[in-house]
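ingest -> validate -> predict -> emit
validate: passed (alphabet ok, no gaps, 229 aa)
predict: started
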Amino acid sequence: MTTEIAATTRKAQGTGASRRLRKAGRVPGIIYGEGEGVSEPTLIDIDHNTLFHSLRKETFHASVLTLDLDGTKQQVLLRDFVMHPFRQQVQHIDFQRVSKNKKIHMKVPLHFVNAEVSPGVKLSGGIVSHVLNDLNIACLPADLPEFIEVDLSSLAIGHSIHVADIKLPKGIEVAGHGGHVSEAVVATVQIPRGAVEAAATAEVDAAAPASAAKPAAAAAKPAAKPAAK
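emit:
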């Protein structure tokens, strides 16, 4: 399903013009990059309420969007947006055009599944920790997934899932994450710290009566009467 959003070309520039747009319920923005037959940056404005609710959807951040600019549609990616420091108000937004024959770099969210049936959780009572929540990928626009699924069903206690263990969709390759991408940890499962401390305390308590038995017995033994002179 393609997400579409409407925009209008704006001619007025500067702080004052942007302020007036925001008061009128519009968000100033820009489209840049090379698309299908277009390469020049274009100043735009978008309805604030429509944009605000779109930004709350995960797919809006990790999908190729259709931007309807004055009736002409073009394919874009959301690249950046600025929120007001304390109001629920979008201050500015940036989109990048995409070309169907040129690879794009995108950060895609990870969806973790089957944690509850993994040996580390089901059999050992461990808790899964997500080290990475998204993955930098490179692909053609048509191959861009909304998310990448990470299967945790085989994750045992004390073990980890690495980037190399993720089954990537067709046409997707991992980008970034340092020099050793495949070795980067995605998720791990460990015994909760509180459970480890509780088990250690229980061991100490279990050993305490045995060590205290002898002093207690010695204290209970009546003292010998002094010899008669």
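The helical segments are 15-23, 48-54, 58-61, 119-122, 193-220.
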